[in-house]
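Subject: two folds for Thursday's group meeting

Dear M.,

Sorry for the delay on this. The cluster queue was jammed most of the week, so I only got both jobs back this morning. I'm pasting them in the order they finished. Each block is the input sequence followed by the predicted structure tokens. Could you check whether the formatting survives your parser before we put anything on slides? The first protein is the one we discussed after the seminar.
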Amino acid sequence: MSEQRRLSGHRRAGSAGAGPGTITPDGCAVEMYARMAPDGEQHIIAGAVREGARSVLELGAGAGRVTHALLELGFEVVAVDESAEMLAEIRGARTVRSTIEGLDLGERFDAVLLASYLVNTAEPEVRAELLRTCRRHVRDDGCVLIQREGAGWNDPANVPREHRRGPLRIKVAAAEPLGPGVTSVRMEYEFEGRGWSQTHTSHELDEAAVEEALAEAGLRGDAYLTDDRTWLRAVPQCAGS
């Protein structure tokens, strides 16, 4: 089942994409993301939620790379994305076509998922709205699971670099500093002889900055879930001390 909510209708500042098929406002190639396999995110999520938790609100779900993996684990997922073409790739979940900022479904969930480094790629004002959306939709005994860029991820000294995820080659091709803590990053992808590129703006956020942003949204950091500290569990400030 699909719903449609408020759409901004504008291209994300600093974002662009190129390659075969539909390119979304933030530069994502639908055909490429529809072919990208999960990278273990579903197991991080399953291990982070409280026992018995089943409902997940996935913000920026894209083509369902993580959605489908969560469904296979028995979760009930509501997948939100502003791209109709991305949502058309999702099977088995309720979908909502909407921007994340300002979303208000009038429902609350056991877990709210803000992955794909959205907390880093959004402008500060938009980031605040994203986190407020997370708080608005999480149960008081639930959690918000956030994926953030690791330290030095966009350091030009570490670029170029690449890795493979199955048949997909993923390359961080360029990183251009735009100002203190702000970098323009160009990604390149290759799959079965077809190629795509995507450029986005990355805002560096150390742990103190993340905690400050969470607090402004009525959340607090609860635990880092991975050794590289790129996955963080946050909880409502009203939940415990």
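Second protein, same layout:
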Amino acid sequence: MKPTQGGARALPGPLVAAALLVTLTSPPVGARARDLGGEIPVRVVSYNIHAGIGSDEVFDLDRQAAVLRALHADVIGLQEVDVRWDARSRWLDTAEELGRRLAMHVSFAPIYRFGSREFGVAVLSGHRVLASENHWITRLSTQTATDPAAAPTPAPAPAPGFGEVVLRVRGAPLRVYVTHLDHRADPSVRTAQVAEMRQIMRRASGPKVLLGDFNAPHSAPELGPLWRDVTDADPGGPTYPARKPVKRIDYVAVSAGVRVHGAHVADTLASDHRPVVADLRLRR
């Protein structure tokens, strides 16, 4: 297995059982470490950070870090993450910067890579990342117009950016996936992406959490097959746009073995999306 960013190791399929026996040295974030009736509490967040730019169009990573810190999350799934992308995010590695500010482990999964410039999704975790993999799913590139060196993409094609990490939470294994689905009104690319994500997640057993910006409402037909495999942690409110949200396109979803104890949408303008916060319970 090859080392990946942040010291995690790529998954060649289901993680071997021995890796899951690794003892964590990093305590979980917040005060949710104690067992509750035989279940293990975990707070997760899904947040499209808009490259660190708020609803006021001002880049302010400290502001986003403060918002996330106040949520006391154990695991955070981020979308629209810049890594030395361009001047809009001051050429910073925003994944590592947020991880440093929050004292969390980082696993970044690029969607686009042009030399040292990268853009994608990330997982921040208060628990050490035992393994990670950047899966490929169907995409229709949005970067050909802004990067003249990029080859034209006339049709959807496989590309990276569906991130998976393996954690161990107080003795319980947990797989976390983070995704950002196609934004176009035509649902055909999202339909393909959902089918491929389901196939990937089915390769592994055990409890799973899916975090992401799906760019579609819960009732969208292209998301229907996904709800056969995972349960939506409905936060009871819209997430986009952040200033006056009218629709929910951001999600936390869980598999069997994970129970949703509660969920809500955090009220913040630190991005153009609002984060979804979910309190989960893992079975031992």
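Two things I noticed about the second structure. The helical segments are 61-71, 94-102, 188-202. The chain has one domain: 42-283.

Cheers,
T.
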